[in-house]
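Our preliminary data section would be incomplete without showing what the modeling component actually yields. Below, a chain of 148 amino acids is followed by its predicted structure, encoded as tokens that our downstream tools consume directly.
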Amino acid sequence: MSTGPAHAKLSIDLSGIHAFVVEDNEDARELLREVLTYCGALVHFSTTTEAALAHLAQFLPTVILCDLALPGADGFAFIRALRALPPARGGQLPAIAISAHYEDFARPEALRLGFNEFLRKPLNLDQVCGTIARLLRADERAATETLG
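Predicted structure:
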């Protein structure tokens, strides 16, 4: 594993996190795999909405990162389908939208449809890991408050 300058500043511990990345671009997948693994996360991938939804029938990750510009059904279709699932099947999983285009439209629409966060490409790797950590801390606090 590389410990060069690209990772020198990353100090966020994502140990125990299972990140599911839905991304069709090979370079983006590899970059996310490398940085998330470096921070301690287990990472799985799908390249289409259809494959991602099929994978979710097999396992539930801790967090989802989904590109909005996917072939076939896009990331907006993915989040609609995800949010329609019951909680036990992943319907309330924390999800982060990723997009290189249309931030003025994509950000509000992604959040309205159920993504918890929106990150713009090119990705800032510190921001990716920090967003995941922050989102999961907020999710844990909400679960604790609900139980308490």
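Confidence is low (pLDDT under 50) at residues 1-8. The longest strand covers residues 18-22. Preliminary results of this kind motivate Aim 1 of the renewal.
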